[in-house]
Structures are given as C-alpha cells and as structure tokens.
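Hi, here's the filled form for the chain we discussed.

Project: internal
Contact: R.S.
Residues: 583
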Amino acid sequence: MTVGWGRILHVDLSSGEHRFEDLDTDICRLWIGGKGLAGYYLFPEISRSWDDPAIPIIFMAGPLTGTPAPASGRICVMSKSPLTGTVGDCSVGGSFGWQLKKAGIDGIVITGRSSSLCGIEISDANVSIADADRFQGLGTDELSARLKDKGSVASIGPAAEHGVLFSSIMVDGTFAAGRGGLGLACASKNLKYVTVHGTGAVPVHDLEKLRTANEDIRRLVAATPALTGEHGLQNCGTAACYDLISCRRMMPTANFRRTFFPPARSMNSHAFSNAYKPKRYGCKACHVLCKRIGEDGTHLPEFETMSHFSALIENEDLKTVAEANRICNRTGMDTISAGATLACFSEISGEKLTPDRITGLLLDIAAGRGEGIELGQGSLRFAESKGCSELSMSVKGMELPGYDPRGACGMALGYVTATRGACHLRAYPISHEILRKPVATDRFSFAGKARIVKIAEDMNAVIDSLTACKFFFFGTSLEEYASAFSAVTGIETSAQDLLAAGERIYFRERMMNAKCGFTSEDDDLPPRFFSEAGSGGDGIEIPPLNREEFLEARSKYYRVRGLGINGIPLVSKAEQLDLEELL
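And the returned structure, exactly as it came back:
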C-alpha cells in the first residue's frame, strides 16, 4: 500500500523552532487532507480569540496534490476568522500546494507570534525563519516578484499590516485566499510570507489506474459546455457568469436595493475581452485555465469582483473595475467584502461613488487612514457604528457575494447555513438553479433545497479536502475522483466513502462554530430580502423571499444536518458520525 500523505510541518514563531510530524494513516483516512485535515488541527483551539498566538494558521494540501490528477493543485488555508469569529478557510489555487507536496510536506501548522516581521522559507526538507522587516508595506505582487527564486509565495499586503478585517493572503501574487480575513491572521503572528520550493516526486500507488481515472475526468470535462464551451469557463473565465446572473434579474445592484444593472451589457466578459485582449492561465494541474491576463499584463477580475465593483456600487466604468481588482490584489484585500463595504458606505452616506472616489477609498482602507480606518472593519461594524446594522448585506459578519438571494432560494438557504458566513461556495446552489448542473431546480422555490444544500455542502467539503476544483464537478463526480484517490493512495475508496467523510468534516465545522457561540440566530439573512422586491422585467418577477418558507426550509436543513432547533449540533448525530469525543 502507498499512502503518500500525512507529513506535517509545525512552526512555532514564538520560539523559532520547527518539527515534522508523520500522521497515523487512520487520521489521514478519516479527514482526507486539505479542509478536513486542517480542521483536525484547528478544532482544539477554536474557542480562543482569533489573535491568540495559540490559534494556528494552517496551509494544507490534499492527497492528490502534486500528482497528475486533474485540477488537484489547490490548497486549503484555515484559521479562526478575524472578520466573523467562525471557522475560516479558503481554497486557493496557484502552485503553492504543488510545491509543498514536491517538498515532501502535506501541510504547515503555524503557531506563536514572531517578535518582528518574518517569513517562513521552505526548500525541500530545509526550513528557516527569515527577517522580513525590509518587506514591510510591500505589495503582494512586488513581494512575489522579489521572492520568485524561492518557489511559490503566499504573502500578505499592507491591508493586513494595517488591521483590515477582510485582508487576504495572496498566492503567487494573483491567487487569493480572500474571504474571512486570513491575511490579518498572518499579520497577528507577524508573518509576512511563506515560500516553498520542492524538487521531489509525489508517490502514486497505481499509475495506470490513475491514468484511467484521469481520462474519465477529462472526457467528462470536455463534454461539459459550462466548462469548455464557447461561453464556458475555459474561454471566458468565471466572468461567464456575469451575463447569466444579469439576465436572470439577480445581479446585486446598489447595495442589494435592486437586482438589475442596465449598463451590465457594456461591462461583461465580452467587454473585458475587447478592452484587454486576454490570454488564459490558471492553477497547477488544470487544463481548463479559467483565469485571464490582458496583453498589457492586467489580471482580469473574477465574476464576483466584476459584479461588486460595477453593479453593487453603481459604477459604469470598466477600467475602474480592473483597477479596483488590481488594488485589492496588490494590497491584499478580499474584493467581495471590499466592494460590499463600499456599497454599504454609499447607501448610508448617500454619496454616489465616482471612479476616483472608489479607488481612493480602497487605497485609504489598505493604508489604514482617514475614512478607510472604519471601512477596513467591514460593512457590519461600519453600519453598526452608524446605527443601521440592517444596511450591512452580510451573514455572520461576512458580506454576500454576487448572487442576489431573492433570485435563487437555494442560494438564500446556502448563505445562512455556510459555516464561514455568506458564502456561495459551500453548497454553490447556482450550479443547479442557474447552470442546470447536474439537474435543473426551480430557483424560486425552497422545495427540496434543504437536502440539496446539505448534500452539496458535504460534497464540497470533500472537494476542498482533496483540494480539487469545484468547477470540475459541473461535469465530473466523486465517483471519478474516488478512483483517482484509490489509485494515488492504494486505499480502496468509493464515492459514498468520500461523501461520508464530507459529512463528518462539515458537521465538525458546525461544532466549532457552536463552541464559539453561534446559533440559529446567526443563520439568517438581512431583513431587506424579506421586505423588498428585486428588479423585475423581461417577464421575470423577483419578489421578496417568503419569511415563513425560508424558516421552514432552514428547519428542514437542521433536521437533515443533525442539528437542534437552535442550530446546535445534536449529541446523537455526533455519536452517529463518531465525533462524540469532540463534544
């Protein structure tokens, strides 16, 4: 049997010491890797304050990372979220996970706090802590360029150094671990960057079986228009969603006061392509390559960034969207929370934001100066300080992304049940409600959505533990990836085995949030969505969400998830999942 994963690097920034740990195979099988294995290390400390030196920040690859398995080059970054106080994790692309596995390491668990700004540098088995004072205030793009000879670079920018609660970690300068403020988690440890370079080979138990699984995955991807079609991710990037969401009258506009933005046709993927003549690039081990870079070197924004820096803040200038994206990436800020916080500011202040004002406020937030100091705390804290918390379009303190929940009931439910706050990726109901994958569901109905959301959360927990790409599952399934997993590790595994692991992983996250005081009161949407209609037209009506139907769907979700009426995990369900010792 070839297991091939479970070697963990522990770094204590307080003492400057490090050690390696080889995990027992049973632990690896139970938690898989990525998100699942990262939670194994976060759980014992989750009740602490996010800035307690004992709270770890964790970089965890998956068992398929570094192998030829398609779309397996991602990595999970996890800590307690400074923005929300929930478990905070992001799946991020680039080459960091690939290089880590080539170095013979599956994960890094970082604790403690350095007395001065530092970086962790890994080259195969060699680990050192370097002084980083000379890099203070440096943008993530420039830092990545300066350190590129050291391999892949994960770094924070000036936003984290100035205490922005939605600051991000940028990998290789352009891939963002964006949501929840993980950049600030690094800054609290005086950690500016981590570099990793590996030269080894990742073992594969049965290379021929892996080739067969890979062929199945590639064949299914090729047959999926949402991925490889003319208007799919391969040719348009995630910007392909812009027109879809707009024409379905669910484009968040003017801080979610409306759901349609008339200038959208001039700010879509086609408009960006005409303006910037982009070429494709993407993560290691991915042939879809859904990111795009213009001929002038401009990194084009993802869908949520396009949406929030155009419709959400009523900006009609295409170049301002691209510049806002550049500022956020360089300074290390989550574009979703940044755009939503500006939208909240605009509504409360009554100010129509001009292009110069948009970029100026973003620079002020990142620099921790003027109005940017308050805005850097996120929309909820800003709105609370003005006495109108209801104008923060957030769940658990995390701002909603680019899908108005009035236009997709599954998305409405998925936002509130997501463990890290208003997240579209925990269940991604847009897959079936808008993209019709794997099957179409009625987007204006809560019927059946509780079970669909629960199963999707379990599946995506597995995907983030394998550290694969969720988009590939528009065409493929856990069946093909179970075959790839078995081929790599030598452990015979079925799709149902993986889904059962996903249920354990997600339930444990609910347990972590419960330990931090979260209940059903936190699983709710802002009142606007229940009292105000969206922007109807073209034969489409966008009514307010029905409050009673929403609460009924949430109650059904609690039952299928194994939670009490207060949203707290039930002992009986914990016992069923062999998690009772964690209660």
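Let me know if anything looks off before we file it.
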